[in-house]
Amino acid sequence: MNEEILQQVQLAYGVENWSAGYFDISSRGTIIVHPAKDDVRYADLKEIVDHLLAKGRVKLPLLLRFPQILTSQLRVLTAAYQSAIAEFDYAGQHYPLFPMKVNPRREVVEEFLREGKRCRIGLECGSKAELFAAIAQEQSPDSLLLCNGFKDEMFVRTALLGVKAGKRVAIVIEKLNELRMVLKLAQEVGVAPWIGLRAKLYSRGSGKWASSGGDSAKFGLTTSEILECVRLLREAKLDHQLKLLHFHIGSQITDIKRVKNAMKEAARVYCKLRQIDCGVEFVDIGGGLGVDYDGSKTRFDSSVNYTVQEFANDVVYAFKWICDEENVPTPNLVTESGRFMTAYHSVFITCIRDEIETFADDQPVVLIDEDDPQVIIELKDLCDSINAKNYAEYYHDALQMKDELQIQFNLGLISLEDRAKGDVLFWEICARSLREAEVDGFSDEEFEQLKRNLAQKYLCNFSLFRSAPDSWAIRQLFPIVPIHKLNEKPTDYATLVDVTCDSDGKIDRFVDLKDVKQTLELHNWDPGDDYYLGIFLVGAYQEVMGSHHNLFGHPNEAHISIDNDGRYHVTKIIPGSRIDDMMQFARYDVAQLAESYKRQLSAQVSGGGLSQVEADSLLQEYEQVAGRSTYLE
Q: Is 316 domain-assigned?
């Protein structure tokens, strides 16, 4: 690949900055994926997509899942903690948990648990449904099953089923009345779980979820409530079951300083509990380990200013230092780093289907005659005379004339044809002004806005609300990159819109190393081109948080593994939602719908509007629609 083009492509998409070693650009200009960091094996995303589409087994949009990246990230996480434990001579051990809320898909959960014997990975669940799935999973005997969230009696009884099955179940107390309920049911059932207490720390995280910590946090016990829990446990003679202290200061913590402060405070709470003869053995630091979505390594909401090793070092060092100072044994450290574990393993593939034009590129040349309104003649004059010296002045003049054009149209002074001429001339002046500004290197905010206004709006075959909902809900940045043609210079600027009928169904904020781009560099697209875009790092939260807005369902899904010889294999294909699936979701009965449509056709036959043969054909066609994809075909 041409070195200059490669630099331009890297600057445009920043793959090496955010990919964490899992994605790269091949010499053929395609995106390749590695099953693990520093692994020479790779698979070509374009080749995978072409293979799947050629076989006719799936259509776009498509979610590609790489389970090997899940285990790779788990190994990176555990290696970081093992390194920190060795470096600081820490007596406790690391117990990773996978929080099911991040991605509860069975394939994800089971992939992590296959690593259980090596790293003692357990599960964290925050609802009865998650717990129901979790207690049936085969876990390593020394791993943990942690129960978070608000609980009712059925939640606790279900957790006790896990205890009966020999699991190390820890119920984390969020409110005082939960402990009273747990004690009552434990006595009834005759078995007691481990008890954890969630502390409400003063320390807060940083980023979008900073409100998860601090005095006003949704979850957690105050210091007085913690002491009351200890009293209640001792009164019930179950204080020996108090095994765990838990806290959580927020997801996607962007600033490592916040981590350090929280660990010091939590370590003090742990030490004080040990000093009043509470046998706490585990401290669960919750989640918070972030993902550098934009590759900037900053405190920006879509980035983090630390590495996983720095995070682990700060956690282990803080507990080692405080515990030594307080003369208490160091606890085992439990982590719930679900975002870090899952974000990289999924890539969402879509394609451009059409362009929504601000103005038509193929408009005929505007011809002016003496009967045209003066404003049209002046716009034509500007358009013909614009050059490198006057483009800024003429652009400002055109803005004034555009306003004048609209005023005259509203007053009925010009025709619809005149207005059309004026619009064509105005946008042509804008396009020529922007070209001159770019040649001139003029980066005034005014022309940056003009660039956004003139950017192509490409219609892509997906639902933002289904497949990347955080982009809409919390303005999360996800890397978006063409998976091919990267050996060519991108020439156009664009924003992306989805197929929903919602004006919010668009992406107009893109990853950039030093800023947030309002447009994405893309290659010239012509109708009929196969041009595939990948939305990367969508493995955390996006699947479970996605909605069925407009009754668009799940995309097709393919699971890919890479063998020791570097060949990829499609290990599983999961068909996306069909229209009849979404009818069931919305509580329609497909058979009843067909029967209702049949009655309407029968009425047309009776009235002479249709023959019976035509009605039968229409009914058959209607019934066949139910089995089709919810997306564009």
A: yes
Residue 209's pLDDT band, with cuts at 50, 70 and 90, is: very low
**SS3 state at 365:** coil
The CA-atom distances, in angstroms, between 146 and each of 102, 127, 300, 350, 472 are 15, 11, 31, 37, 31
Q: Where are the beta strands (DSSP E) in 204-341?
A: 242-246, 282-284, 332-335
The one-character DSSP state at 221 is B
Helix (H) / strand (E) element for 420: namely helix 416-440
Q: Which position has the token pair 């929504």?
A: 356
Which residues, other chains included, contact 338 with Cβ-Cβ below 8 Å and sequence gap of 6+?
Answer: 98, 99, 101, 102, 103, 124, 287, 540
Domain boundary (336, 357, 375) is at 336
**Start-end of H helices in 190-255:** 223-235
Rounded to whole angstroms, how far apart are CA atoms 21 and 283? 31
In this prediction, residue 370 carries a pLDDT of 75
CATH number, domain containing residue 308: 3.20.20.10
For the cut 60, the answer to whether the pLDDT of residue 213 exceeds it is no
What total of structural domains would you count in the chain? 2
| Backbone φ and ψ of 237, nearest 5° | 55, 35
Give the span between the Cα atoms of 123 and 134, in whole angstroms.
7
User: Span 312-326, mean pLDDT?
Assistant: 96
Distance CA 294, CA 514 (A): 9
H helix runs in 386-415, sequence order: 391-410
Supply the range of the domain harboring residue 305. 72-336
Q: Residue range 95-101: average pLDDT?
A: 97
Mean pLDDT of 535-557: 96
The string of pLDDT tens digits covering residues 360-408 is 555 667 777 778 888 888 888 888 889 888 888 888 988 898 899 899 8
Q: Residue 13 CA to chain centroid, in angstroms?
A: 17
* Mean residue pLDDT across the chain: 91
Neighbours of 356 (CB within 10 A): 11
At 218, list the tokens. Answer: 């949704």
The pLDDT assigned to 171 comes to: 97
Peptide bond into 479 cis (omega under 30): no
DSSP state of 405: H
**Pairing state between β 520-522 and 332-335:** unpaired
H, E, C per residue of 347-407 = EEEEEEEEEECCCCCCCCCCCCCCCCCHHHHHHHHHHHHCCCCCHHHHHHHHHHHHHHHHH
Residue 352 belongs to some domain of the structure? no
Predicted confidence at residue 214, as pLDDT, reads: 46
Amino acid at 554: H
Summarize the confidence of residues 147-154 as an average pLDDT.
Answer: 94
Q: Using the 3D structure, point to which of 318, 336, 354 is the last residue of a domain.
A: 336
Q: 427 in a domain, yes or no?
A: no
Q: Does any domain span residue 497?
A: no
